[in-house]
Amino acid sequence: MKEQNWYAIYTKPRWEKKVSKLLTDRDIITYCPLNKVRRRWSDRIKTVWVPLLPSYLFVHISMKEMQKVRETPGVINFVYIEGKPAIVRDFEVVRIRKFLNEFENVELVPFILRKDQRVMINQGLLVEEEGRIIDLKNNKVEVAIESLNYNLIALFDKSKLINN
Q: 85 with 78: CB under 8 angstroms?
């Protein structure tokens, strides 16, 4: 069996649901996170489903199916990290699904890193080590990891850190 992963794709604005349908018609497993929102019009209040991540959705595919996805009308491209299509971990998709099933009017707040903030490393040799941000440089973060009463200082890509 071919290995499949979740990938994030970028779509034309307001095409998330259309692209999801087109991909599903091509036997591609998709997930378009929809947020249940109450909207007020002058004469009524209506509940509508809007994409949680505007212009983004997830596809569960093998590497061989990437071209099939790219050729779908409305798809702009895959989301890339470090020059490769970004793999979204299964548990993250499950977590988004559960969260949206439980809550309405979900608001997205960007993850902002600041000096002296505590973080945990989520990839590599130092996975699950805690540290403190010393400096931020473009997409790189300098983190101090306290060990044996010394600061081990390492430079990390922002994507390898989580808020602690």
A: yes
CA distance 4 to 9: 15
What pTM was computed for the model?
Answer: 0.71
In one letter, which amino acid is 44?
Answer: R
Read off the amino acid at residue 105. Answer: N
Return the residue matching tokens 């509508």: 48
- Alpha-carbon distance 99 to 138, whole Å? 31
Of 55, 52, 61, 59, give the one whose Cα is nearest residue 98.
52
Instruction: Return phi, psi of residue 67, to 5°.
Output: -65, -40
The number of C-alpha atoms within 13 Å of 102 and in the hemisphere containing its C-beta is 6
**What are the DSSP E strand ranges found in the chain?**
5-11, 29-31, 34-40, 45-51, 56-61, 75-78, 80-81, 84-85, 87-88, 118-121, 130-137, 140-147, 150-157, 161-163
φ, ψ of residue 157 in degrees (nearest 5): -70, 140
* pLDDT, tens only, 64-113: 999 999 999 999 999 988 788 989 999 999 999 999 998 888 887 777 88
